[in-house]
Amino acid sequence: MKVFITGGAGFLGLHLAKFFSKKKFKTYLLDIIEFDKKEYPKSCRFIKGDIRDIQSINQLYREIKPDYIIHAAAALPLWKAKDIFDINVGGTKNILQASLINKAKRVIYISSTAVYGVPKKHPIYEDDLLIGVGPYGGSKIAAEKLCFQYIKKGLNVTVIRPKTFLGTHRLGVFEILFDWIHDGKKIPMVGSGNNRYQLLDVDDLVEAIYLFVARSGHPQGVQEQQGHPKGDFIYNGAFNIGAEKFTTVKKDLEKVFIYASSERSESRSHNKNSTRQARTISKVFPTPAFFVKKTLWFFEKIKLSPLYQWVYDTADKDSFVSVKRLTETLNWHPKYSNSDALIKAYKWYYKNYKKIKSRGSGVTHTVGWKQGILGLIKKIM
């Protein structure tokens, strides 16, 4: 079987490539940016290309003849609005059209829970109102509408709406958090930190994607969901995914602080001649949410902060989705809790700290983001 992964050079693309190669799929990876090929299985085929170029996409499909497409390519919120819509909407339309013409067995579209905006009720269900915040949220809603249009045309499409996911190789905004924890800095919350904010481990996301692919055309033994037709069509439509076990932002982070403190202690005991590391254990402290949000909005507009509106607008709110539709359809459950995912990601960060810091910054999830004004604030924490 052949799987074609767009956004293959990204954080999720890397994890998908490793998993599907291990499952003996012929794995093809497409991205507009360069691949760090040494991180990938040797069996992967790397293709540099742009999903906005419909002629190139059609040519690739004719050459590869992919059975399954995992469409993970996306312009992130830090990008220009025009590029966000051209890539996230126009590029998605090209992938869907080529998949329909070439009779692909299934397209897995990686959307986002950003399509729900800043909801007032929880948990959030797939049929709740979609209100995107900013160009990124709006583009994801528009791309999803295309997916549902192509389902009506006969293409099998699974839309996955993951909560913010992390794991090994995940940097971006998490690199800022991990950098502060590594240096023993106090972490200012937006608000009290007593809100419940669901995350997701990338390994859980990848396994769920694999199950949608592996079970397509083989619905036997899968619990049928009320309102869904029988057969392969049961996998068509939108599915939320996030950790099933999570507490408050404050409590989940405190578990990471305890782990980070133990890592520092162990490092000092094994390397007495190394530069002494910070002894302070990171702690969270509350801030006035209204004032902090207005301040972050201002710094974002003058391009001194990497935090975009959806991040800080939801930071002090409950934010969690129902995963019942997914777990019942796949008869499967996510393995990792919020704190499990955070600790696992931080453990990788700590181990690779020097290498990560030598790379420089960027605007993708696989490199750190420039902290801007946050870097100045860090110095006084």
Describe this structure in words.
The protein has helices at residues 11-22, 54-64, 81-101, 134-152, 173-182, 202-214, 249-270, 289-301, 309-314, 324-330, 338-351, 353-357, 373-379; strands spanning 2-6, 26-31, 45-48, 68-71, 106-110, 157-162, 165-166, 187-188, 200-201, 237-241, 284-285. The chain is of the alpha/beta class and 381 residues long. The protein has two domains: 2-167 and 199-241, Rossmann fold (3-Layer(aba) Sandwich); 173-197 and 246-317 and 339-379, no CATH class. The longest helix is centred in the last third of the chain and has 22 residues, at 249-270.
Radius of gyration: 21 Å
Mean pLDDT, rounded to whole units? 88
Q: Judging from the principal axes of the Cα atoms, what is the shape?
A: globular
User: Can you list the strand order of the major beta sheet?
Assistant: 3-2-1-4-5-6-10
Structural class: alpha/beta
Give the SSE string.
EHEEHEHEHEEHEEHEHEHHHHHH
Task: State the CATH topology of the largest domain.
Answer: Rossmann fold
Total of domains: 2
In this structure, how is the largest beta sheet organized? 7 strands, parallel
Oligomer designation: single chain
